[in-house]
Sequence to fold (602 residues):
Amino acid sequence: MRKTKSLAALALTAGLLLAACGDDSDSSTADTTAASEETATADTTVAAEGDAAAEGDATAAGTGNECTAGKTLEEGKLTIGTGNPAYSPWVENDAPESGEGFEAAVAYAVAEELGFSKDTVTWVRTSFDEAIQPGAKNFDFNLQQYSITDERKKTVSFSDPYYTSNQAIVGFADSAAANATSIADLKDLKFGAQAGTTSLDFITEVIAPSSEPFAYDDNAGAKAALEAKQVDAIVLDLPTAFYVSAVEIEGTKVIGQFPANAGSGADEFGLVFDLDNPLVECVNTALAALKDGGELAAIEKQWLSDKTGAPVIATE
Amino acid sequence: MNFDSSTGPSRASARRAFEEQRRRRSITIAATSTVAFVALVVILVPRMPRWDRVKQSFFSGEQFADSFPRLLDAFVLDLKIFAWSVPVILGFGMLVALARVSRNPALFPIRALCVIYVDLMRGVPVLLWIYLIGFGVPGLGLERPWNSPLLWGTVALCLTYSSYVSEVFRSGIEGVHESQRAAARSLGLTHGQTLRLVVIPQAVRRVIPPLMNDLVSLQKDVALVSLIGPIEILRQAGIDKSKFANFTPYVVAAVIFLCITVPLTRTADWLLARERRRTGATRVAA
Fold:
């Protein structure tokens, strides 16, 4: 009796501690206006004078713009989170600092738009699940192909989407899965995907195969299972699917992608913030500017495979 | 407390009265301290500033009801894996233990092999074996159904737990006094008969409590098989947690696990107590 109670107490205490660690994010917005005038002038100078002349101002101006003042974890610095490890084509060679790979490039483009120079950007690593759980965050924003979903919005805030991806399936070119053209052709296959992702939801809700899918901690697990032929096909976002089939697992191909309106099929990727982080607004402004200026499209073209390459699978 | 002057029967009744009084006193103390402790928890915890948030994310009744049937369903897989594994583990563990305690010089290579096996299996986390065997062996090119993660995950569990269990058995066998063997041999029993009729029965009876501990821990480690694909209770709880952004599914899983492990542990305790009574160890009161 006593033992059980003390265990319960222990569990409760642990729970309380966890919760206590949560949401201390209400960074003050009070100093924003105070700082805004100065920074604004500094910013315009940089923009007007161009590279050579801006050299001297770079350190002073490279620490954010009027919007971000007082909203980042560390004043004058931008802390960005990504996966551990981060995968191609999102981050090349697991080195986001290089700016190579789609998400690394987007991160630096957003940082630049917010007025952060490259050397004021710090990278931290989190697991996929970790960053979307309630609790204090060690990053200003995190990007590792987080699909924007209503459920996740209860615990974290999202920016506007920076990329829209379709779900795609990858299987061996000589397998039963290879010739599927509709959902009906896929029913009897064994599927695998990363647990807690929209890809797994897509399998259970849209494909609804006859045998239960397998779930893994990460895409690496799903790929290992595909290689061992424990599953016939795995579901991923399209760019990752292309990368897996072209580079990682010999003999596989992207069997198809699902039209954007198929169930939870279309995934809009957003930057993840701590819940109600005021920085979201600044980042959305920056993203809008990048979209309007065509920079986002250019980055996408540079790092992601052509989306039209895979056949579309009918969902009716 | 001076009973010396009393006569026989009255001394005995005085002792009984005294013991009764001690017993009542310890019951009162136990009851009071339990009530005080429970009251402290029940009163204090809800007064913590963030209790509402914790309650919502760990003990949401709505989420509990929603996840429970799904998790119970997923738990069937855990039970199946457990049920397949236990006989294999007990059998294989006993074989390894017997090989290790064998005294035949010709069996030296087998003894050496068993030592290496036990060292390797015990020295490396179960998790690693599950990955290595669960992905590695099917990766060699086995065809379905022989590449099933369920099959190889279970094999990994059986191999690791057999090594733990073999050590438990070995300690039991070595704990049987040498005079038992000597007596059996002097009665004309062969080495094999001695082992089968005299040593093993005593050894097994002695190691049942520690064996139960291993089974309880196996029951929880079954969940590790989910790492290589199968969706069992813990994985389903994780999926639910991600989906609903709520930790209650984990609490549901914990409750379901407890329904199995608590009776198992209590049985182990009961067996241990019985063993103590049987071997005549006296209990010292607090």
